[in-house]
Amino acid sequence: MKKLGLALGGGGLRGLAHIGVLQVLEDHNIPLSIISGTSVGSIIAALHVSGFSAYQMEHEVMKLKPRDYLDYNISGLIRHFLACFFPAIDNNIDGIIKGKRLEKTVNHLTGGRELRNSKIPLAIIACDIDSGREIIFSSRKIPLQGNDVLLIEDARLSQAVRASTAIPAVFIPYHMQGMQLVDGGVRSMVPVTVQKLLGAEYVLAINLGQEVYDHSVEGIPQIINRTISILAYETSATEQKIYAHMVIYPRIGEVKLHDLHRAPEIIRIGRRVMKKRIDELKKALFA
To answer: pTM of the prediction?
Structure first.
């Protein structure tokens, strides 16, 4: 059997479809040799390397509440508002959501594990917004070329996830090693290139971005998220064509950050789309 690498793309709560994909792989006893994730894909990847089965992931998701990962930057928003009337007040605001609750929740679920504790090779993608460099959190040494990519091997899974999920202007950037780290989708929305660097022989990519925008967006978070999605998925298209052997497109549409009530529906979509391709995948892996 070829070494299967699974690349989990970003896309907010649409990423719960990754759980459905993993459930089908587990049902058919198809093991992963390598896993990589961007943004929400990094959360699912971190849970997988921590020993969670896909069905255990679904169980944990059903217990979550939006307050477990959404901590709004109320004080920052108030300062920004007051600065409109009192210029002496610092009006800089780096994000609407702090991200501390998300990091704490992931750290709890993963048992505080570090990258080096991953049961299989793992890569989580972030971006240093100051320099524009791609940041790869990995449990393995990766041969990198050029100065526009930095490898970090010494960090907790929760730190890597916090950095990778920091949607610019929505989440406050994650400060680490003198850098301001933001959502990995800025550089690699569907992280397939790193799969080849880690030795994958067959790369299965899950792209959450092929959708029909059937309604208008409202509010700063939705506008920013839609803009990043349009730009980032276009950028990832070339990467996929070169390195991905199979690309799965769960068609989910727009999902807000607090729409956890849609979790069962989204997971089913991921399961359904993977079932349609599972025979093709098995044939390719054993060819």
So the answer is: 0.90
Query: Which is more confidently placed, 238 or 35?
Result: 35
Residues 164-179: what's their mean pLDDT? 94
Listed in sequence order, the residues at least 6 apart from 273 whose beta carbon sits closer than 8 Å to its beta carbon are 17, 20, 21, 248, 249, 250, 251
User: Among all chains, which residue has been given the structure tokens 């990091």?
Assistant: 103
Exposed / middle / buried, residue 32 (Cβ in 10 Å: 0-12, 13-18, 19+):
buried
Radius of gyration of the chain (CA): 18
Q: Identify the burial level of 272 via C-beta atoms within 10 angstroms of its C-beta, where 0-12 means exposed, 13-18 middle and 19 or more buried.
A: middle
What's residue 232's pLDDT? 64
Q: Judge contact between 200 and 251, C-beta under 8 A.
A: no
Q: What average pLDDT does this structure show over 176-203?
A: 95
Helical (H) or strand (E) element with 96: strand 95-97
- How far is the C-alpha of 256 from the C-alpha of 14, rounded, in Å? 9
